[in-house]
Design goal:
Two copies of one chain form a homodimer. Chain A is an alpha/beta fold and 331 residues long. Chain A has three domains: 2-53, lambda repressor-like DNA-binding domains (434 Repressor (Amino-terminal Domain)), CATH 1.10.260.40; 64-164 and 291-317, Rossmann fold (3-Layer(aba) Sandwich), CATH 3.40.50; 166-289, 3-Layer(aba) Sandwich (Rossmann fold), CATH 3.40.50. Chain A contains 13 helices and twelve strands. Chain A has helices at residues 10-17, 21-29, 36-49, 55-62, 78-93, 107-119, 134-143, 166-180, 194-209, 223-230, 245-257, 275-279, 291-306; strands spanning 67-72, 97-102, 124-128, 146-149, 159-164, 185-189, 215-218, 239-242, 267-272, 285-288, 314-317, 320-322. In chain A, the strands form two sheets. Chain A has a six-stranded parallel sheet with strand order 2-1-3-4-5-11, sandwiched between helices. The radius of gyration of chain A is 26 Å and the shape is elongated. The first copy, chain A, starts with 9 loop residues before the first helix and ends in a 9-residue tail after the last strand. The structure holds a DNA duplex (30 and 30 nucleotides).
DNA sequence: CAACGCCACTGGAACGCTCCAGGAGCCCCT
DNA sequence: AGGGGCTCCTGGAGCGTTCCAGTGGCGTTG
């Protein structure tokens, strides 16, 4: 099938338009110094021939590919999808393409993908994963500008960080519960990672501020069962702030199974506004991160780094509270 | 910061090892015709210098980048994530990298991303999206080998297709309901797209085979309400086969809201074994597609096309039934 | 011992683009 | 009339690879 004939190059266009290849290059990139008449002619010819500029050749010659990479640990996590959407929209505004690498939640795969994306010649990388090893992150950052999403501390210098303000989010959740009249509020934690710790500490501080005792229960230590058992008793907790929506949803599930009325006997607040928060019944009250905005901000930081800005910064964005059906005044 | 010094090239390695750049190239690619002693020396030097081969230059010179592209319409769809995981694992086995493009469920974005991925110089593309316009698909297929996942008909020749056997899946669902003793089974459809049609037709055929009347209700025509109203009556349906899990979950939700006992008064079977099937209560009985296997098969087909195989084929893989809590014998 | 074949290695062209130094033509000013 | 400064355009070098046609040395063979 002759349609497989080699793709037209800049030289083909130049020949067909009767100009030099340099001029075609200038015209296509929209450079000044090309007369309008010639430019339109060249573009028409290019279009006619079905010319597409070869990114590989351009990247090789310019040292820039106009493509940024995004490394994601878990594709199926809607949080990641939204952040990626934000990144893409901002990149597109700047005329850059985006490719995504998928780490399948495994540190070694993640590191390999990161290398592979960099090898492809992207101009910069945004890492949306808390799981990437610090050394891999550091090594990558010496190769290209790198922006990290979500990890609360800038371990290596040279990387910028965008994250949601977990402390403030936890405070939002607790203010909500406190204003409903809850006093015996426990925290259900399932992870010791950075974001989870920030939320846990913020919980502790909010309780201290309100002069109330703080109690953290761990899922992997049977915390859920302990919580459910206690919440029947007169002195038991009337509300629970969970470290994330998955944990909250599981708790809700178990509570309903145990015949405990939610929210009448136990109020539950999650964190993340994940899809599951809308799917459970009653709907989960939760703290929402500004996911697209986080992505857009990450892209903005990366673009400025690509343009030569050497400063690495840490940006935190404000979360908000979404009230659904799992919170009410204690009865 | 002096770590930003230019990355070492093959020439640097050659100079450091005291050989020609051609020999370095051969050694690194594992070509024959390099003595063992020289090869190990070259590799050691390369490693020492932190040499990484430049994919852009290699792609330009060879016309092959050793990277395949995957175009996905919706990142957050776990179905897609699993297919991608399958693709990646197979590609990795063959020593190829993978980049993902994200179409955000919008045909025009999808088409633009596809072009962009192709521009990047990937050796082939796998499209995991039913939404891509046929023309865009066709245009892409003339540029590189292309494999389509999920769309049941090969519209343009030149593309291979991997899909789940929707007809057989629907038959599995109906066999299950029939063997439970159901006789009045309706189909609830929400889409007229290809996969949905295949399931709908298979429903009709299965009913005909069993000598039972087939009734298809459409969600967008108030089918859900009609179904719920009818299922109370003596002659009303005792079971429903939904076109996908989302539809099934919504039906389940409405049925429970209406005070209808599921599965006692109404059995429900979905399709896809999406995450939601596990999250609703009771868990949804559904047809599961072999998602990773589909991805692996797609990658296998693509690789053989890349290696010069000109045949385009259509492969269907067998689905399986996952029985959960929404099906029981009619009472 | 000359001829041959094979092995290990080399140098340069090519891939498709960008960038740079420079050239032709034109208008304006002195 | 001569020069200066535009604007519009050109040719060639260079980006880091791969590929191809050799080259030289060595062992085998008639």
């Amino acid at each position: 099938m002759s349609a497989d004939r080699a793709a037209p190059t800049i030289v083909d266009v130049a020949r067909a338009a009767g100009v030099s290849k340099s001029l075609v290059s200038l015209a296509i990139r929209g450079d000044v110094g090309v007369s309008d008449a010639t430019r339109t002619r060249i573009l028409a010819v290019a279009d006619d021939l079905g010319y597409r500029s070869n990114v590989l050749a351009r990247g090789l010659a310019r040292g820039r590919t106009q493509v940024i990479g995004v490394l994601v640990s878990d594709l199926s996590n809607p949080y990641h999808a939204d952040v990626v959407a934000g990144i893409e929209s901002r990149a597109l505004d700047a005329g850059l393409g985006t490719v995504i690498g998928h780490g399948r939640s495994r540190p070694e795969v993640l590191a390999a993908r990161l290398d592979q994306i960099l090898d492809l010649g992207v101009d910069g990388v945004i890492v949306v994963s808390a799981m990437l090893a610090a050394e891999a992150l550091d090594a990558a950052a010496t190769r290209r500008p790198l922006v990290m999403v979500g990890r609360p501390f800038t371990q290596p210098r040279r990387v910028s960080v965008v994250r949601n303000h977990d402390e403030r989010g936890a405070a939002l959740a607790l203010d909500h519960l406190l204003s409903l009249g809850h006093r015996r509020i426990v925290h259900l934690a399932s992870s010791r990672r950075a974001a989870a710790s920030a939320r846990r500490h913020a919980y502790g501080e909010a309780m201290t501020r309100a002069d109330l005792p703080a109690t953290t229960l761990w899922v992997d230590e049977g915390g859920t069962a302990a919580l459910l058992a206690a919440s029947g008793t007169p002195e038991g907790p009337t509300a629970c702030f969970a470290g994330n929506d998955r944990t909250a949803a599981a708790l809700l599930h178990d509570a309903l199974d145990a015949g405990l009325d939610v929210p009448a006997r136990l109020s539950i607040v999650g964190y993340d506004d994940a899809q599951i928060a809308r799917q459970v019944r009653p709907g989960l009250t939760t703290v929402a991160q500004p996911r697209e905005a986080i992505g857009r901000e990450a892209a903005r930081l990366l673009l400025s780094r690509i343009d030569g800005d050497r400063d690495t910064v840490e940006v935190t964005l404000e979360p908000s509270l979404t009230v659904r059906g799992t919170t009410a005044a204690p009865c």
